[in-house]
Amino acid sequence: DGGITQSPKYLFRKEGQNVTLSCEQNLNHDAMYWYRQDPGQGLRLIYYSQIVNDFQKGDIAEGYSVSREKKESFPLTVTSAQKNPTAFYLCASSIGSQGKSPLHFGNGTRLTVT
Amino acid sequence: GQNIDQPTEMTATEGAIVQINCTYQTSGFNGLFWYQQHAGEAPTFLSYNVLDGLEEKGRFSSFLSRSKGYSYLLLKELQMKDSASYLCYRGSTLGRLYFGRGTQLTVWP
Questions:
Q1: Which site among A10, A37, A59 would you substitute to test the B interface, given the most B Cβ atoms closer than 10 Å to its Cβ?
Q2: Which residues does chain A have within 8 Å of residue B31's beta carbon, measured at their own beta carbons?
Q3: A13 touches A111 (CB < 8 A)
């Protein structure tokens, strides 16, 4: 079955360490997205990619980095520069990039930094 | 900006009908989506409107008025399991997707 997989589900890190969250999809979707969700809040866009080897900053890109070397993969690195990294991170993909088709979400990664 | 506005919280009783509204800026509009999200889980797709009118899917319906920048999600015959956050988001011709903050619905017995 096709889908979008995020790993790990829970991640714990010490402050000052970089950490990379994995996102893989086998839906053959062109567009991929990373969102951050804090308790009681909506989804805020970190980065998005409309095509391989291209990506754009979202609303809260500071302290994060991404790569899109393969269509299937869109890993997110949370760097030590991100001031408040503890959050629930959601990866999503869609057929096109202009909101004409639904987003397919992964199950999320809950990152805790102490 | 591309503000999407939804009520923060709503409550209703089991068996009732509830309407969750969503308003948005109309420039570059490219479709309006509704998602359900239970606490700690990923959002799941409920419905999509690109043309004006009502889309019905079982107990869930969604309505769109493009000229007014307005949509609503209608939930009928509410069940306890419908207690969740409901997110609306709109597509944009600029390639971006804009989410509302979500409406937390609590269904009481």
A1: A37
A2: 99-100
A3: yes
Q: Could you tell me if A111 and A89 are in contact, meaning their C-beta atoms sit under 8 angstroms apart?
A: yes
* Residues A29 and A78 sit within 8 Å (Cβ to Cβ): no
Q: Which residues of chain A have pLDDT under 50?
A: none
Burial, B55: exposed, middle or buried (Cβ in 10 Å; 0-12, 13-18, 19+)?
middle
d(CA A20, CA A33): 15
**Contact present, B103 and B20 (Cβ < 8 Å):** yes
Of A42, A88, A100, the CB nearest to B100: A42
B47-96 per-position pLDDT tens digit:
999 899 999 989 999 999 999 999 999 999 999 999 999 999 888 776 67
Nearest to B30 by CA among B83, B103, B95: B95
